[in-house]
Amino acid sequence: MGRSPCCEKEHTNKGAWTKEEDQRLMDYIRVHGEGCWRSLPKAAGLLRCGKSCRLRWINYLRPDLKRGNFTDEEDEIIIKLHSLLGNKWSLIAGRLPGRTDNEIKNYWNTHIKRKLISRGIDPHTHRPLNEKTTTATIKTTTSATTKATQLDFKNTPPQSLAEISLLKSQLDFKYNNNFHSSQYSIFNPKKTETPSFEENNCTSSSMTTDEQQQQQQQKRESHQDQDVNLDLTIGLALTQTSSANSAESRLRQPVSSCQLFGSVLTRPVCLCWQLDGERRELCRNCQNQNQSSKNNHSNNGL
DNA sequence: AATCTAAGCAACCGCAAGTTT
DNA sequence: TAAACTTGCGGTTGCTTAGAT
């Protein structure tokens, strides 16, 4: 299949962006929104290719970018997500609001690699440098108990959607009958800039005060444990656009605190694997949810 | 003060996946 | 159904700057 060049190279600027160009791009996006990158440069009066505009916006101009150094907590999150996902920078960035994939990638290459090496850890395998075995293992923990679980994907972290799916199904199998669904929460940072569970209006309206207190306690406990819990696909929000409906793009979306702090959830997390936006197969949680809502309806005489 | 070197980071490039025609 | 097109990702490059010599 042939492909046309993304832009006419002889008519485009390259290299560092000027303040004027930045301003033009920001002004244009402020008025028209993101998207249509190919036609944007012409419409905005920029002598840049669409790709370049997109990159500049995403990595530098976006208003929601978090500036400044990475915190130690962010470091640890990146390390743990990298151990799970490998060089899936966009997925990792999706879990760190305000950080871009490029920023994380650069930070990994310039800081974290060295940090891991200085700890005697191989940054590729996340195993001790002097260790020869290539089988990757993942340590998962819960707030109540610490369990080391050997997952059986080998050699490298999952590289494709299919592999992530496989890993998720392994998790399903290993945990679904043993733990509350909240254990799928991906990480329990000690603190986070993500809005709190309550701020995000995720509190179940049907929750009693006791239940809320219990959840608060669980939340406190979970914050004391900053180990990463495995949650590769949890809480995938249904989105409108077809492209956003792809499983991987949904993976990339920032997770809300509802998804992050699974331990404070009372509502089971949706684990459906909806590849085309249609709910073809319901996960256990959704089946239970449907069942209980049916029951509620019938109990309410509906 | 001049030069060299390494680190940090913005930006580019090629490719693949997804979408549209 | 296939070609054309768009978007986004990950690897890489190259410029800038700070520190060392």
From TrEMBL:
Record-annotated HTH myb-type domain positions: 9-61, 62-116
Compartments where found: Nucleus
UniProt-listed InterPro entries: Homeodomain-like_sf (IPR009057), Myb_dom (IPR017930), Myb_TF_plants (IPR015495), SANT/Myb (IPR001005)
The species this protein was found in: Populus euphratica (Euphrates poplar)
SUPFAM superfamilies: Homeodomain-like (SSF46689)
Pfam families for this protein: Myb_DNA-binding
Keyword annotations of the record: DNA-binding, Nucleus, Repeat, Transcription, Transcription regulation
Biased composition (Low complexity): 132-149
Keyword Transit peptide carried by entry: no
Domain (Myb-like) ranges: 9-61, 62-112
Region of interest: Disordered: 122-154, 185-226
Amino acid composition bias (Polar residues), ranges on this chain: 194-211
GO molecular function, one term: transcription cis-regulatory region binding
Protein name as it appears in the record: Transcription repressor MYB6
